[in-house]
């Protein structure tokens, strides 16, 4: 168990003024079996009219709009989380688990993943957990970490064929492989101890529980992680989605800091 | 079984109707009213007239009573199904419908999981396509639960015909079909959560724009485009001509799920309303029909509708499906392979008469290729016995010609299910074709339901 202090800061800077800005944000962690959010403050700027909702995957969604002209847009989410309260997440929605068993346009395999899947020989393994571990270990050797090789739109197949990518790609490839084996699994967006960007990993349905696997770091997800959202793939977990009026370019800065809280 | 020959005298049939058809009067007036059907062909939008045939399809009251009971039963069961799928999924758990027909189908929208629409109604307006076989039996061909169109055509054709050829109506006991607007209004009002009722159109370049404007006029609902609606503070508002915002409680949206809300579905959509789905989720507006209904009307699910009726209602289905095989099941695959030439194969992902092939019309090579594809993707196709349709007469250049036709019946769900006592009869103008869709050049007839 850990007590983690977290801060998630996102800022979009536009090259000119925009208005009629509508946004949906999935940037707020919530309580699960594994984590409890003890303190939290959320601010969205500039001043917006904001509503809250929970989507079909159980993620907290903030949505709203502003009609005022503005040159930047962002949010700050800070708080304290108790993590590692359990080793897994149980599901209150077992009837819905099947929906995570099927490929999406992003995870659908092509020839390179199909070929790799055959090499993995998953049928020799006993259960979903063993298979997930095997996939995670294999991927760690077969896929290299590197920024700038893939984009937010890259599919699992494209990423794997290219051989290099980031956490989002690791997660999509793992989802694709698990789903080829009919294992329900979901994409997770969250934060990990340290400083940098947000992180992505995978949860696999095993023995009526969700177990977290981080294929990028070849780790079982434990108390160093704070989960924000989950879905079938990245597209269900977009941290920030917006439309606005204005012919501008935009620059996004993200800074995530998670550190262990020391007793004062 | 009655036909028009039973209610029209010989003189009416031979002389009056010919005169009436020959004058081209109704078609001319329909054109003037703008009763057109738009289609996209080679990426170009073309409007074409929807040719009207003067000879009505006639259904006697007893037969229609039977259809009415069967249609209500079917739509009620389908509504239970959608509610179950986006809720507890009992029918999947109980093994009646295999999971992959839900999740791997194109009509299922995970965004709709857990949402209960106002009054629990999903398919407010259902267009159920039927055909009558030569044996006199009716078969369901297809359920349309997304945004079925077509009711306006017989409505306006009846109106113009009554004016153009009043004599043909004299002494006939026909159910008035001009009440469709009342049924629709009642349906929309029933789920309205407070505020105006609007009909949302993607605009005049839509295939059914005539219908959108006609139904708006007849029901007294505002006809609006996406840019006139705005979500603010968890509610939907209509911006009127003076810039004032008026609350909207029900939207009969004639745009597909995909384009409804760029924040929740297709992000490229410019005709949708950002965040409308978020407030729908909160119960603050009714969407007619509910998003996600596609899970219940694809051709794969069609196979299971009779099973749904037994499962949810504990009743025997009153109306039958066309005999259908699901190659997904081994037994059915075997049957399909052995009786390939007797069957029609349909791609479950296609609509509008596309993706339909007849086994008997394929060359040996095409057959081999198709069978291979079927083995590879068994879930993608259904196979059906070719129904020997009952031909109905149309009049072309003074001649009576037999043609294939279907019937789209409209079932509206308010506090109770209601079947419109009319319907859209579509016929194929090509004597060899079974495909009657207007997008493929078919025509239409009025459907007369006799009141006694």
List keywords for this structure.
heterodimer; A: 264 residues; alpha+beta; Immunoglobulin-like; C8orf32 fold; 2 domains; 8-stranded antiparallel beta sheet; 6-stranded antiparallel beta sheet; 4 helices; globular; B: 452 residues; Dna Ligase, domain 1; 8-stranded mixed beta sheet; 6-stranded mixed beta sheet; 17 helices; 33% helix; 25% strand
Strand-and-helix sequence of chain A, N→C? EEEEEEHHEHEHEEEEEEEE
The biggest sheet of chain B amounts to: 8 strands, mixed
What share of residues are in beta strands of chain B? 25-35%
Q: Please give the count of helices of chain B.
A: 17
Largest interface: A-B, 21 and 28 residues
Helix % of chain A is 10-25%
Q: How much is the radius of gyration of chain A in Å?
A: 19 Å
Shape field of chain B: globular
CATH class of the largest domain in chain A: Alpha Beta
**Unreliable runs of chain B:** none
Mean pLDDT of chain A: 95
Structure description:
The complex is a heterodimer of chains A (264) and B (452). Chain A has helices spanning 111-120, 128-142, 156-162, 167-180, and strands at 2-28, 35-45, 49-54, 60-66, 70-83, 89-90, 144-145, 164-165, 185-192, 194-196, 199-206, 209-214, 219-220, 225-231, 240-245, 250-260. By secondary structure, chain A is an alpha+beta fold. Chain A has two domains: 2-84 and 240-260, Immunoglobulin-like; 89-236, C8orf32 fold, CATH 3.10.620. With 452 residues, chain B is of the alpha+beta class. Chain B folds into two domains: 4-317 and 388-449, no CATH class; 323-385, Dna Ligase, domain 1 (2-Layer Sandwich). Chain B contains 17 helices and 22 strands.
């Amino acid at each position: 168990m850990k007590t983690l202090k977290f801060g998630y800061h996102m800022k979009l800077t536009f090259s000119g003024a925009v208005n009629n800005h509508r946004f949906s944000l999935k940037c707020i962690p919530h309580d699960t079996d594994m984590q409890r959010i003890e303190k939290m403050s959320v601010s969205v700027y500039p001043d917006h009219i904001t509503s809250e909702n929970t989507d079909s995957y159980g993620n907290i969604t903030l949505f709203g709009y502003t009609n005022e002209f503005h040159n930047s847009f962002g949010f700050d989410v800070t708080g304290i989380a108790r993590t590692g309260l359990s080793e897994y997440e149980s599901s209150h929605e077992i009837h819905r688990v099947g929906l995570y068993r099927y490929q999406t346009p992003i995870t659908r395999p092509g020839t390179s993943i199909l070929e790799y899947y055959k090499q993995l020989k998953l049928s020799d393994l006993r259960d979903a957990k063993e298979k997930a571990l095997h996939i995670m270990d294999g991927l760690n050797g077969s896929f290299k970490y590197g920024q700038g090789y893939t984009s937010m739109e890259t599919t699992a197949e494209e990423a794997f064929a290219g051989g290099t990518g980031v956490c989002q790609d690791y997660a999509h490839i793992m989802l694709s492989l698990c789903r080829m084996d009919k294992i329900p699994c979901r994409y997770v967006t969250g934060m990990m101890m340290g400083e940098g960007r947000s992180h992505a990993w995978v949860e696999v349905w095993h023995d009526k529980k969700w177990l977290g696997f981080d294929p990028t770091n070849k780790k079982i997800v434990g108390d160093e992680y704070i989960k924000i959202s989950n879905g079938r793939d990245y597209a269900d977990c977009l941290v920030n989605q917006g439309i606005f009026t204005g012919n501008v370019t935009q620059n996004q800065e993200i800074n995530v800091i998670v550190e262990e809280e020391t007793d004062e | 079984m009655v036909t028009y020959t039973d209610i029209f005298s010989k003189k009416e049939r031979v002389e009056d109707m010919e005169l009436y058809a020959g004058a081209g009067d109704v078609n001319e007036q329909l054109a003037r009213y703008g009763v057109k059907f738009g289609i996209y062909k080679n990426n170009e939008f073309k409007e074409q007239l929807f040719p009207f045939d003067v000879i009505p399809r006639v259904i006697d009251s007893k037969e229609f009573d039977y259809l009415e009971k069967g249609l209500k039963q079917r739509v009620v069961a389908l509504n239970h199904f959608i509610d179950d799928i986006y809720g507890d999924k009992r029918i999947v758990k109980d093994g009646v419908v295999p999971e992959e027909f839900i999740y791997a189908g194109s009509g299922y929208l995970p965004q709709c999981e857990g949402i209960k629409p106002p009054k629990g109604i999903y398919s407010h307006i259902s267009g159920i396509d039927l055909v009558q076989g030569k044996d006199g039996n009716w078969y369901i061909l297809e359920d349309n639960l997304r945004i079925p169109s077509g009711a306006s055509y017989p409505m306006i054709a009846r109106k113009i015909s009554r004016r153009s050829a009043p004599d043909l109506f004299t002494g006939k006991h026909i159910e008035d079909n001009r009440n469709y607007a009342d049924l629709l209004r009642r349906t929309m009002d029933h789920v309205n959560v407070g505020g105006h009722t609007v009909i949302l159109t993607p605009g005049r370049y839509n295939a059914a724009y005539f219908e959108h404007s006609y139904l708006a006029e007849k029901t007294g609902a505002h006809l609006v485009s996406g840019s006139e609606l705005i979500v603010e503070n968890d509610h939907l508002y209509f911006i009127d001509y003076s810039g004032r915002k008026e609350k909207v409680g029900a939207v009969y949206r004639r745009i597909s799920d995909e384009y409804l809300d760029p924040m929740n579905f297709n992000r490229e959509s410019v005709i949708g309303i950002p965040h409308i789905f978020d407030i729908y989720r909160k119960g603050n507006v009714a969407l007619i029909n509910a998003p996600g209904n596609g899970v219940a009307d694809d051709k794969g699910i069609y196979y299971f509708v009779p099973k749904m009726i037994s499962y949810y209602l504990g009743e025997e289905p009153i109306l039958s499906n066309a005999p259908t095989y699901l190659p997904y099941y081994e037994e059915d695959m075997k049957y399909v392979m052995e009786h390939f030439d007797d069957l029609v194969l349909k791609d479950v992902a296609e609509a509008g008469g596309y993706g339909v092939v007849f086994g008997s019309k394929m060359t040996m090579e095409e057959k081999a290729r198709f069978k291979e594809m079927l083995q590879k993707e068994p879930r993608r196709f259904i196979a059906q016995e070719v129904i020997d349709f009952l031909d109905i007469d149309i009049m072309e250049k003074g001649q009576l010609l037999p043609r294939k036709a279907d019937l789209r019946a409209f079932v509206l769900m308010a506090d109770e299910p209601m079947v419109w006592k009319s319907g859209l009869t579509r016929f194929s103008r090509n004597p060899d074709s079974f495909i009657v869709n207007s997008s493929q050049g078919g025509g239409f007839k009025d459907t007369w339901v006799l009141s006694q």
